[in-house]
């Protein structure tokens, strides 16, 4: 009997260790990656722009998801039960809803910001003033706070839920009634998704229209003299970078839809099918959504040259102190994603490493 127990217990222990290692790696990537984004924008003035204000606030939300939400979800997923008490279960659920919703709201604000930058550049500074950017960031945090802590801590999210059998007390299952499921999903996901899709569709049409204009301009310049070639090249390079920036945020938007759409679809459907969705499906879709918070800093670092250089300078600060002063960081323009040469600024002094780097 002892041999059988040991034989059956070892695979379970090994699988739990593997799961803990896998989830821990994801949590570390989420925390470190988003911390680098916050540090880069806070430390380098060249990266401080209206767009990057949203990016920084987004990174804070994703950083908190990795720091205060994912570790406890990891223990619940691996152990199959909740070990932290009923009160903290409600607090954890509230933080989960709030921070994930805040992350989604920030992505919609970034899309809104890019819409004005690309489609209405002449009124961009008027529409995206410092006061308006600050107001939108406050909204990105206040609305998720209202739809999470209030209803969940008061138990309104599960009022009228009649599930048989009810889950055990140590399970920390986030059950919601039909009204909360529909309303919260609409506010937290489907409304921001609609804003993002509309904004990126407008950006795509504007980029396509501008590309046609550039093509017509090149046809006119083709018969001209060499003095027009530099102007033509500047227009071509500017539009190429503009389209690349729109494509980059489009990829970020696509990743967001890929990882969050399954969860919010099940979240709405489950109350109408008597909560018959398997726990394993819930956990899988939830962690799929968490992955979005892990990928955002890598997407920025991979596609954005400004962030990529800032990350390299931060991570290699001790090694590259002598050469840091010669490295340039391109400004992410407030009115355009084009990295204009006129907005390029050299770092005049060596960046001081923080104590923990």
UniProtKB/TrEMBL annotation:
Location (main, coarse): membrane
One Gene Ontology cellular component: plasma membrane
Keywords: Cell membrane, Disulfide bond, Endosome, G-protein coupled receptor, Glycoprotein, Membrane, Receptor, Transducer, Transmembrane, Transmembrane helix
Every G-protein coupled receptors family 1 profile domain range: 33-300
InterPro entries, alphabetized: 5HT4_rcpt (IPR001520), GPCR_Rhodpsn (IPR000276), GPCR_Rhodpsn_7TM (IPR017452)
Keyword Membrane in record: yes
Gene Ontology molecular-function annotations: G protein-coupled serotonin receptor activity
Transmembrane stretches, start-end: 17-42, 54-74, 94-112, 133-159, 179-201, 245-264, 284-303
GO biological process: adenylate cyclase-activating adrenergic receptor signaling pathway; chemical synaptic transmission; positive regulation of MAPK cascade; regulation of appetite
Localization: Cell membrane; Endosome membrane
Subunit structure and binding partners: Interacts (via C-terminus 330-346 AA) with GRK5; this interaction is promoted by 5-HT (serotonin).
Protein name: 5-hydroxytryptamine receptor 4
Species the sequence originates in: Oncorhynchus mykiss
Lineage: Eukaryota, Metazoa, Chordata, Craniata, Vertebrata
